Amino acid sequence: MRRTALLASATLLTALLPLGAARAAAAADDPAPVPVDRFEGEVPFAAQPAEGIFTWGGDADDPPTLALTARADAPEGEKVLTGSYDISGYGGFTHDFAADRPAHDWSAHRGVRLWWEGRNTGKKIPFEIKDGGANGEASELWTTSFADDFTGWKQIELPFTDFAYRTDYQPVGGIDQVLNLTAMWGYSLTLPVGVRGEFAMDHVELYGKADPSLRASVTTDAAVYPVKEGGTADVRVTVATTGAAPLDAPVTVAYTTDRSGSATAGKDYAPAAGTLTFPAGTASGTTRTVRVRTLKDRSAETAETIPLKLTVTGAKPPADTPQVVLDAHGLPYLDKRLPVRKRVADLVSRMSLAEKAGQMTQAERGAMTAPGDIASYALGSLLSGGGSTPTPNTPAAWAKMIDSYQLRARATRFQIPLIYGVDAVHGHNNLAGATVMPHNIGLGASRDPALAERTGEVTAAEVRATGVPWDFAPCLCVSRDERWGRAYESFGEDPALVTSMETVIRGLQGRADGRDLDRGDKVLATAKHFVGDGGTAYGSSTTGTYTIDQGVTEVTRAELEAVHLSPYRTAVDRGIGTVMPSFSSLDVVGDGRGPVKMHARADMINGVLKDRMGFEGFVISDWDGIYQLPGDRAAQVRASVNAGVDMAMVPYSYKEFTGTLLDEVKAGRVSTRRVDDAVSRILTQKFRLGLFEHPYADTRGASRIGSAAHRAVAREAAAESQVLLKNGHGLLPLSRHQKVYVAGSNADDLGNQTGGWTITWQGSSGDITKGTTILEGMREAGGRVTYSKDASASTSGYDVGVVVVGETPYAEGVGDVGNGHDLELTAADRAAVDTVCGAMKCVVLVVSGRPQLLGDLLGRTDALVASWLPGTEGEGVADVLYGRRPFTGQLPVTWPKSMSQLPINVGDAAYDPQFPFGWGLRTGTKVPKGGLDTLRALSATAKAAESAGADRQGREAVGKARLLVQQRIAATLNEATAKPFAEADRALLRGRYGEALSALTRAYRAAGR
């Protein structure tokens, strides 16, 4: 799922005033305005630690261009800041103050203002200020926005009271979440996404006298107070001050139960009114309580609301009007004794069209205008995209955050709980300190379905313990081209391999009938991306600068069925709860339709998935995927919903989507039957998850997050994922008595070995979470290790070298080859290999999401390991290097010799790879003696086992033959030997043991020619 940058826009600007009018309105005792930027050249284009203005963006094309331009119409001075932009991800610019000088004090002023040349685009422009911390890049971020809904120059005033703490990202995890304004480090401005444009701005300055409400604020302990009918709600009202100082002036809070709610005064509750007084000198954090008593009438009812109106004098009021909510009761859908289908039917029959549309809508938590929108729009779901995390990024903060959203849903008529989703694609990878598994390509290399199930169990337990009941995993793509930036999300290039690893679904969800979903260690799983995302053609993408991701998959109907649809049949049989369509397009040869985006393919979603395969869960769109369809918003919503999309992931445009869907239904272009079907599917899963009875986080399993037991599973998975491609002179396993020289960019980099989708969408290099690097694992294994990243230290006196090279993190199309990436090792990595392998016997480990082109380096290495992206447990890699565990991994994809061979896959007519599909030398295992006679005997055993349905005996026979043949052909890999070897592995995955032995025998014979 796509993750783009998020800015939680708080409130729109409150005044757009010409300069003269603004100054005329200022009080006489206001301090003089203080310039921040005049854009006359006094602040250079530079980055920290110097003071300067610099640009940034999601990828190389996203940063805007900036210039200081002389303009006759400049509002102030002679020059203005101008720029152009064309942003697909996120981009903007920042003015940071010098890090080696004191921060600035803005606390005497009311706000910050600037001149903006409006283009009347209607777009919001997020504006951010940097409060406290060590410097501009380690400060706390506070944000607001203004609208470009005018033409020509206007002065924009942004009062500090309008700035909200940014909830989706904080560089240092947040500091005190108080806008102190006494140590300011600058500002930044984010430009609109998805449109090409130009801008001009001038003269940023501080204005006005500080608003007293910035020094004191009144909050309530919650926004919503659910109570059972007849119960009493206690609303705790607290006063807090900047710096925790006592109040310097009295604060009063007048309260009254407001009759604007759906509850009736005197019938449903006893009216309450009064005043709370906090005198001058009151300590910050002092709390008073307002009690609201509800009444019983003994009839079955939907939930009813009682707003508690607060009028605050002398301080900033709460952001929301607190609401007391009388819980819904006595209605059939609330009766957990009834079958789920009856509960669903009862609830759907009571819902309005607007409530149904809300259930079909999913928003990004960091993109909500306000948390109250959950109830206002009756939202059915929220998600955290990659990197959208609470502050601090801890299990407790996750649970608290999600519980706060579930609390908002209690203010709706039927109190339908949210279903919250995350991309936990290799563990709870958004959460710092969670157990991070190898990516799917590594699990595919393990060829261990039971282990895949256990990784799913660990992931589900850690995800659910933070309050998240839904995981956008697993990816069931069949990767057919290593140039694809998502290749590592695939278990492999063969559908039978992908299907065999779908045991992970049971690990995530439990039993296929859904009876385990309400457990505190299970989550709803998602099969993605339906269908054909792994088969897109290089150069067919039209998304930004992507080259293959989100492109076109052109296949015959037979190829579609055999390769790309096959894993989904298995997923449906395993009871998969949700399915996500692909961003890509499908072009079925001969159907006359040409390429059609999957989000609009009713023949595949309704026809194949739901009707033919019998899928009973719900279909969730990918990130804004419906808006990649042709036509206007109405056409896009209509096409996707009618094609079978049940819930739309519309991170930023949830309001627009619900409104458009309502219009389409009222116009008859989307049927109420289609809507009822979608909502019924969604509610079914919510009931199965037990969310109606237990909407809040069950944190009893939180202590197991990142536990030794969970990391042991990840360590085992890392070990089994290692593929030994070459082992000259039996160099591996190493001895702990050997002196080992370790080098390379990925030896001691946790971020690189975990890859993309780790903590953030794209992942990043460095010590980004808790774990053990490969180097640390080798040291913990007791090895006599010396480390020199660039191999600059002396190489004399060592028994063996280990050089760990490979890729840096990326995700999705950002990682496409040709989009700033290739399959070559970096010059630094090649130099490290040359230096170490030229001085001693050496092992090269390739840490990457896909095969790397080795070229002449292969001949210079004694041993070679495909380490893939092993996750946080580098000890697992050390385990096989030092022989604590044997090497058992097998290639899940073909390893090419050159770019010109791509795409290359098992079963191709021409097949001459560097290493074939299924290749993987073993250690700690005796190779059977003999030659063709042994193979003939094993062939007889394999055929008999196949006939008898004795899978274990059949696999054992093929395994023994594979060892014998692999030893024979290792030094003579060519098309004649590699092709039948790969075909044998493909036959083995399908249970065709006799065919596998025949192919291995052909490979053996070819080696002797």
Automatic annotation (TrEMBL):
Gene Ontology CC: membrane
Organism domain of life: Bacteria
The keyword Electron transport is annotated on this UniProt entry: no
Q: What class of enzyme is it?
A: hydrolase
- Enzyme Commission identifier(s): 3.2.1.21
Family matches, as Gene3D superfamilies? 2.60.40.2030, Galactose-binding lectin, Glycoside hydrolase family 3 C-terminal domain, Glycoside hydrolase, family 3, N-terminal domain
Q: Reaction catalysed by this chain?
A: Hydrolysis of terminal, non-reducing beta-D-glucosyl residues with release of beta-D-glucose
Residues in Calx-beta domain copies: 205-311
Q: Which UniProt keywords apply?
A: Calcium, Glycosidase, Hydrolase, Repeat, Signal
Q: Which residues form the signal peptide?
A: 1-27
What the entry lists under Pfam families is as follows: Calx-beta, CBM_11, Glyco_hydro_3, Glyco_hydro_3_C
* Gene Ontology terms for molecular function: beta-glucosidase activity; cellulase activity
List GO BP terms, alphabetically. Answer: cell communication; cellulose catabolic process
Xref: InterPro entries:
CalX-like_sf, Calx_beta, CBM11, Cellulose_Degrad_GH3, Galactose-bd-like_sf, GH, Glyco_hydro_3_C, Glyco_hydro_3_C_sf
Keyword Nucleotide-binding, does the record have it? no
Family (UniProt): Belongs to the glycosyl hydrolase 3 family.
Name it. beta-glucosidase
